[in-house]
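Notebook p. 47: complex prediction with manganese (II) ion.
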Amino acid sequence: MIIVLEPTASDDQVKDVVKRVSDAGFGTRQIVGEGQSILGVLGTPLPDVLYETLGLLPGVQQVIRVSKRYKLVSRDFHPSNTIVDVDGVKVGGSEVVIIAGPCSVETEDQILRTAHAIKESGATMLRGGAFKPRTSPYEFRGLGEKGLQMLAKAREETGLKIVTELLNPTDIDLVSSYTDVLQIGARNMQNYQLLEVAGQSNKPVLLKRGMSAQIEEWLLAAEYVMAQGNEQVILCERGIRTYETITRNTLDLSAVPVVKRLSHLPIIVDPSHGTGKWYLVPSMMLAAVAGGADGLIVEVHPNPDTALSDGGQSLTFENFAASIPGVRSVAQAVGRTVREGVGAAVAAD
Ligand code: PEP
Ligand code: MN
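Predicted complex, structure tokens below:
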């Protein structure tokens, strides 16, 4: 339920509305908009009598039923786009943000060279897994804290913001102490304890779509994070499993405008996991931006042939650099710009 307040509603009137809702056993979130504020009512099922009483209170313009199971994530509750601020790099505004880096952090030399190369080409954030969820237990599972230290060193040298995966709720403090963004991987999209600890942290969360998740399930996963008080959620489409085998996953680019319609949260696209083939990545980067994505997250490796994970879908420095001018042109064609540099924003949001 959404309570639309009169633009002239006084603080006391708003307090009274909040109290009535809380006396009925439900929570509220106030969303202050330009000229008009709304109160979102959290909880279910809401008794009919509540709709009627609240609609009669002074300061209330209208009470609207929201049938969606996700509330905080929905555009009904929060009509304007959310802009997630990653320590000065804004995701969800007019600028398209590029995140790049290896699948896994392997060596200091690997991550530092990659960081410098992607920065040179126009990326503003560095990705790299230190804790890796691997389908087989015998594959490289990441360097753990050593990998996080290498990422921090790369940030120190380049100013790039760091994105790395949180695999286990017990690592939340450790990973948060190094990273700028907590990535929740596809395999953990429905790990509700992990979502809740990420929701209790003060770091932005990059929530990947589960490989068999419907969009509604994905938005409900984001609701878990937001329900804990963390509103800084970035969704990431990374492909879903279908009957197709030539590509690793089927990159569902229609999810971008669907999510934009249903939610106020920013959405970025991962064409690397989305296709599994490096030579398909550049065209999907263009398509994602054309379709309205707020950013890209792309795997880049100094030497994909020897990568310890996901080499086949990783771009070389040269191929990554070559793909960026096209991304800029497409961004411009859809009325956006690509974020330049890691310092202060160049364009107003
Ligand atoms: C990754 O980003 O390297 C990763 C493991 O991605 P996903 O969770 O989308 O498979
Ligand atoms: Mn990977």
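Notes: Residues 344-349 have pLDDT under 50 and may be disordered. The first strand starts at residue 2 and ends at 5.
Next step: compare against the earlier run before touching the bench.
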